[in-house]
Amino acid sequence: MATLLSQPQRRPPLLRQAIKIRRRRVRDLQDPLAPKAQEIEPPSHHLSPEERALLYEEALYTVLHRLGQPEPNHVREASELLRYLQEAFHMEPEEHRQMLQQAQKLEKPIFCLKATVKQAKGILGKDVSGFSDPYCLLGIEQGVGPQGGSPGSRHRQKAVVRHTIPEEQTHRTQVITQTLNPVWEETFILEFEDINTSSFHLDMWDMDTVESVRQKLGELTDLHGLRRIFKEARKDKGQDDFLGNVVLRLQDLRCREDQWYRLEPCTETYPDRGQCHLQLQLIHKRRAPKASRSQPSYTVHLHLLQQLVSHEVTRHQAGSTSWDGSLSPQAATILFLHATQKDLSDFHQSMAQWLAYSRLYQSLEFPSSCLLHPITSIEYQWIQGRLKGEQLEELATSFSNLLAYGLSLIRKFRSVFPLSVSDSPARLQSLLRVLVQMCKMKAFGELCPDSPPLPRLVTETLRTGTVEWFHLKQQHHQPMVQGMLEAGKALLSLVQDIIGDLHQCRHTWSKIFQNTLKIDLFSMAFLELQWLVAKRVQDHTAAVVGSPVSPEMGESLFQLYVSLKELCQLGPVPAERDGVLALDGFHRWFQPAIPSWLQKTYSVALARVQRAVQMDELVPLGELTKHSTSAVDLSTCFAQISHTARQLDWPDPEEAFMITVKFVEDTCRLALVYCSLIKARARELSAGQKDQGQAANMLCVVVNDMEQLRLVIGKLPTQLAWEALEQRVGAVLEQGQLQNTLHAQLQGALAGLGHEIRTGVRTLAEQLEAGIARHIQKLVGVKESVLPEDAILPLMKFLEVKLCYMNTNLVQENFSSLLTLLWTHTLTVLMEAAASHRSCPLASSRLKIALQNLEICFYAEGCGLPPAALHTTTFQALQRDLELQAASSRELIQKYFCSRIQQQAETASEELGAVTVKASYRASEQKLRVELLSASSLLPLDSNGSSDPFVQLTLEPRHEFPELAPRETQKHKKDLHPLFDETFEFLVPAEPCQKDGACLLLTVLDHDTLGADDLEGEAFLPLRSVPGLTGAEEPGEVPQTRLPLTYPALNGDPILQLLESRKGDREAQVFVRLRRQRAKQASQHAPRPGR
């Protein structure tokens, strides 16, 4: 039968509306644009004027004949609801007035109370067994005054329903036997005329059946049952017992009530009689509007819901807000009243809501999450037998339509859900959840059994949508002017768009599809797009590299290569792939363009270097940055070359090695070119300068720029990833080839830069060396009356000013190099001055103090040269020489004996023999007691093979012991092991014995009657080690001391040479003459080898 309101046209089967599945690989497509999937036309929700008028009449009628108290949050005033309906149906005021009058003239409906007696609990037990056989009588009492229905306003009576309500209007439930908690679940329709004068009455009774006394006694369980038997004996046979009643005024009820009501007693004997669970609903019968008479209630409610929801969405859009799925209080009130009056079940209301929302979703903009509630409700209440065939078909069509529409949105999700809108990911995820929930429904499985699995449908849809998106992008980037350069730029833009889309898929979209449907969108999109890109890039490069590549085309190809490299890096690693990708080995398509890329890189860098030097004024950038602008520009230029090399990252190992060699060669060449250019720039700027200080400033900046360049060049192995390259080329290159090639290039460039830096620093040092030499010469020539500390002040002030200036203008590395050169030069000048003033202690003293102060100056509290650089061999030799030259003659004599004592301590060989002595000092007597015990293993100095030894004892140095004459032992004839056993005492204070060099000199001589005595050897006993010299107590047992004999140095001693140079010092000359004599004696009797 034709319906009054138009029904949506039936759509083709689901598979015809689903996205067409591609049957061939995307790489085989030849058409410039892929065929579009069939567009889904959303079902119309608009009504014709006649349909709208009938539906409006239905809505007005619902409001006019409203029953019951309003629900919480619902609208109470009918005028407000009528105004809302006028807006929702877009009615003009006159039209609204006419329709309202027409609705008011319609016949009133039959008012009914739909009462469902659910159950009761805790009722009285009236039978002997302690239970009851309850049943209920219910009906409507009409014509009662406004207060007549109140239970408290009339006397309690047992039989309100039975005695007051006509029997034909009385309804009765079944009898539930032997229970105190009966369950009925029975529904009754009770008609009434006026809600204000009608009351609902329910009486609960216990069915009383005729039983014998024997039966009752058998059921007796307690004393209460016995009393019940006596009571029943006094009443009529078969009279039912009253259990309680419920009385409700209809005007106090809401449209729907579902609660427990207390059973009221007629007396106070048993006030607690239990509760009864009732469901009450105020409904209509025989509604007058034409829509109600010609359409099923469910269909009319569906169209009303569609109309109101459409208005809600449109109203929010007009206010620049999106509808969140919440109905306004007016719409919620009207729909609730209509569903209640039409007695629509919850299931049919959910069905209507689903159909309305699913249709409107395809044409209006509102959250897809609004569809989840009706889906859940239908799934929870689904019983296929509830729906008629037409309704089942309508539900199946709604499933198919929404699925097809959802797939069409998914196919175009990049444009439908743009990431520029913040809530797009959430909207897509909500749509997927709705589709997943719908396809999981039992209703969907029963009504659409032939539908493929949702993940497969979505996967094919995404694949098709990805291809369509690619072709749209390709068409969008199509150049207006046809040419290879324009085509390359268009292809580059297309690849960059694809990369951006894949990044979005990976970071946003793929997570949504993976979490919802376990679909890897990113991998699918990557595989499809890389096939499409590969074909177009290969065709383009084949056409371009066939002829000479221009610089502009080379740059375009390089950018395209870099973009393809980035695209490939997004894909899975080779170990995780199922097969070969179309972009594998794409670098070979660009191989002919490599020479032009390398040449352009060098040319651009050279131009930048030349421009940077030409614009450089050779002024430091700041206090902390001591190089100029060209060094910064050069660093940026080299960083760009390294960046280009990293971008290229050529996959073939051997070719990658050759490319890296070229990059290193060009970089090193640019470094040397820069050195030449920056020096020429310095000469150009200083040509017209008369101020030497300005020229020095420029020279400082130049060497700083070169040092900065050296640091940058030194980072090439890291920037160009030599270590990774060495691992890659290990299998194709000979052992050490990379070291011999790349490192040799680098070391050559660093050596050249180092030479340039040293040359510049050498020039700066030469400007200071003359001043240092001049001040040192003045230092040694100053008057004797000037103190050494004052004599060095001009030199120190000169160095302070110059070094502070250099430290301010040079970087640390160059300043350290300058200090090293100046320190070396200073030491050379000092050595020359020390040599020329060897015999002048005063000049040497000044040079010694100057050396000490210069060491402190060049160390500069750790900011200058380190101690290892200061304390060179030259420095140590000069320090020793000046230490000696600055000493007095007596100090030199003391140093001489100190050295002989040290020589004595280090001598272990008794090749010349040895002497044994015992020495002690008695502080109380100020006496040094020496016991000369023996000598042994003396050299035979006489021709008879023996010697006539004796020992001479002297306290040295003589200037410390001027009053003590030398002592001698007895002479022993022909004895190489003489036993002297002689004791000598020296009256001497303790103080001189404790000085450095104080010693007892034991000279062993061979007595010669005819000539001078021969020297057997010398032994030195340091006096400060003699027992009793430092202690307060007298020495006890004195140990023996065995001293090997030694000879004076045969080649001359530096101290003796220095003393000898002091011709005017008689004491020095006497001492030197004596020591030379001893040395001469020693040289005549030096031991022969083999003794």
Automatic annotation (TrEMBL):
Report the residue ranges that make up the C2 domain in this protein.
93-239, 911-1036
Give the top-rank taxon of the lineage listed in the UniProt record for this protein: Eukaryota
Domain MHD2 per the UniProt entry, residue ranges: 789-896
Localisation per UniProt entry = Cytoplasm; Late endosome; Lysosome; Membrane
Pfam family for this entry, one: C2
| Xref: PROSITE patterns | C2, MHD1, MHD2
- Which GO BP terms sit in this record? defense response to virus; germinal center formation; granuloma formation; natural killer cell degranulation; phagocytosis; positive regulation of substrate adhesion-dependent cell spreading
Give the keywords, sorted.
Calcium, Cytoplasm, Endosome, Exocytosis, Lysosome, Membrane, Metal-binding, Phosphoprotein, Repeat
Q: Name one GO cellular component term.
A: recycling endosome
All copies of domain MHD1, residue ranges: 558-678
Membrane topology according to the record? Peripheral membrane protein
Q: Which CDD domains does this entry report, sorted A to Z?
A: C2A_Munc13-like (cd08676), C2B_Munc13-like (cd04009)
Q: Can you provide one Gene Ontology molecular function annotated for this UniProt record?
A: metal ion binding
Q: What does this protein do?
A: Plays a role in cytotoxic granule exocytosis in lymphocytes. Required for both granule maturation and granule docking and priming at the immunologic synapse. Regulates assembly of recycling and late endosomal structures, leading to the formation of an endosomal exocytic compartment that fuses with perforin-containing granules at the immunologic synapse and licences them for exocytosis. Regulates Ca(2+)-dependent secretory lysosome exocytosis in mast cells.
Q: Which family does it belong to?
A: Belongs to the unc-13 family.
- What's the protein called, per UniProt? Protein unc-13 homolog D
Organism of derivation: Ailuropoda melanoleuca (Giant panda)
List the taxonomic lineage. Eukaryota, Metazoa, Chordata, Craniata, Vertebrata
